[in-house]
């Protein structure tokens, strides 16, 4: 679905290629408060851009929240080294936010449907913009795309949460059933609540996740730097980077014995 969305977005952009320089200029002026600077409001404008950028960035790519690593940790990376999976995760953030979100902005701006401080925002604005460019079916396509994006996000995050409960040994049947009911209740609540309320709750919950995860990131930053240096050193030497637990004695007690040997064998077979 993401690929189909990007194909359609690129079609719209190339159909209006003459407007692209103007769009890029508008994005930079709005992002860095260049227009507001002339009116003396640069500080406030930049602060608002940073705050909203961080909040919506978290909502888009979950960078720093500690949710996506649930999937990364269960992957079998190649080259068989932890840093290789880290680089894959970085690519995911770039694709999600820089590519897909920029494509959405481009659709909205080239369509001429965007009105600063207008009443129409969010998904409805995207639907109108795409409909203006490709016809009425564009709005239907956006609705279908949003459904799949939202549905897969719910399934993925539920899977992360249940896996963590099982890891913490809270996997008795009654507890999992209660958790499933709570998840369904929150989905229903989000569907019938006002959009500002949903945004506010999402911002608070994601902020709390980020705070907790940032503590873990800071505590693990030393070993992360060491792993990255080991990966890049092997890469520069012309080798396929391979993780050797013996080089990281501080990690040996936390690793399942032979787990990285199994990862390498799985890729060879």
Describe this structure in words.
With 269 residues, this protein is mainly α. It has one domain. The chain has helices spanning 2-15, 20-31, 34-38, 42-61, 69-73, 82-111, 122-134, 137-167, 173-192, 195-236, 249-252, 259-268. α6 (82-111) packs across α7 (122-134). It is globular, with a radius of gyration of 22 Å.
Give me the secondary-structure topology.
Layout: H1 2-15, H2 20-31, H3 34-38, H4 42-61, H5 69-73, H6 82-111, H7 122-134, H8 137-167, H9 173-192, H10 195-236, H11 249-252, H12 259-268
Helix pairs in contact: 1-6, 4-10, 6-7, 7-8, 8-9
The number of domains is 1
Overall pLDDT: 80
- Rg, Å, rounded: 22 Å
Q: Please state the structural category.
A: mainly alpha
How many strands appear in the DSSP assignment? 0
Query: DSSP strand (E) fraction?
Result: under 5%
How does the overall form come out from the CA principal axes? globular
Number of helices: 12
Specify the helix fraction band. Answer: over 70%
Our measurement of the CA-to-CA distance between the termini, rounded to an integer number of angstroms, reads 31 Å
Low-confidence stretches: none
Question: Which sequence of SSEs, written as H and E, runs from N to C?
Answer: HHHHHHHHHHHH
> Could you describe the largest sheet, including whether it forms a barrel?
none
Transmembrane segments: 137-160, 181-202, 208-228
Pfam families: Na_Ala_symp
Keywords: Cell membrane, Membrane, Transmembrane, Transmembrane helix, Transport
InterPro entries: Na/Ala_symport
């Amino acid at each position: 679905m993401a690929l189909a969305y990007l194909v359609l977005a690129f079609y719209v952009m190339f159909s209006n290629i003459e407007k692209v320089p103007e769009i890029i200029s508008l994005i930079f002026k709005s992002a860095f408060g260049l227009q507001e600077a002339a009116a003396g409001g640069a500080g406030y404008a930049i602060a608002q851009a940073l705050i909203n950028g961080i909040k919506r960035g978290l909502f888009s790519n979950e960078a720093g929240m500690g949710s996506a690593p649930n999937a990364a940790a269960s992957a079998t990376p190649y080259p068989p080294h932890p840093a290789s999976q880290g680089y894959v995760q970085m690519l995911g953030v770039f694709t999600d936010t820089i590519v897909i979100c920029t494509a959405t902005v481009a659709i909205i701006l080239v369509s001429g449907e965007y009105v600063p401080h207008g009443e129409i925002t969010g998904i409805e604005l995207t639907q109108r913009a795409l409909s203006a460019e490709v016809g009425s079916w564009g709005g239907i396509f956006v609705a279908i795309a949003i459904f799949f994006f939202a549905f897969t996000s719910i399934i993925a995050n539920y899977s992360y949460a249940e896996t963590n409960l099982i890891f913490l040994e809270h996997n008795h049947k009654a507890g999992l059933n209660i958790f499933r009911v709570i998840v369904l209740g929150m989905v229903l609540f989000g569907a019938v609540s006002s959009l500002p309320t949903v945004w506010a709750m999402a911002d608070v919950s994601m902020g709390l996740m980020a705070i907790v995860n940032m503590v873990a990131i800071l505590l693990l930053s030393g070993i992360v730097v060491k792993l990255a240096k080991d990966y890049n050193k092997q890469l520069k030497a012309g080798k396929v980077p391979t993780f050797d637990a013996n080089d990281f004695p501080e990690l040996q007690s936390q690793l399942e014995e032979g787990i990285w040997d199994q990862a390498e064998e799985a890729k060879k077979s």
